[in-house]
Amino acid sequence: MQVSARNALKGTVKSVVVGSVNTEVTLEIAPGVEVTSIITKSSAESLKLTEGKQVYAIVKSSDVIIAID
Fold it and tell me: How many helices (H) and strands (E) does the chain have?
């Protein structure tokens, strides 16, 4: 994976809360350190996000983007 953003935080999906349009994804970056992102429901489905999956939180400006290898 190559991304132009400089801030990529590897973490484990702690929770996935699916809404009608958006999905709230919480990652554990380190013990006791969490990052939460709101992404579209279709993006969460496309990434097949489930608890325990290893993912990246990519931070650029005010956005947190979720990515997988």
Answer: 1, 5
**Cβ atoms within 10 A of the Cβ of 51, count?**
10
Residue 61 DSSP symbol: T
Tokens representing 14 are 């702690």
Phi, psi of 6 (to 5 degrees): -90, -15
pLDDT, tens digit only, all 69 positions of the chain = 788 777 889 999 999 999 999 999 999 999 999 999 999 999 999 999 999 999 999 987 766 778 888
CB 48 within 8 A of CB 55: no
- How many angstroms separate the CA atoms of 9 and 28, rounded? 10
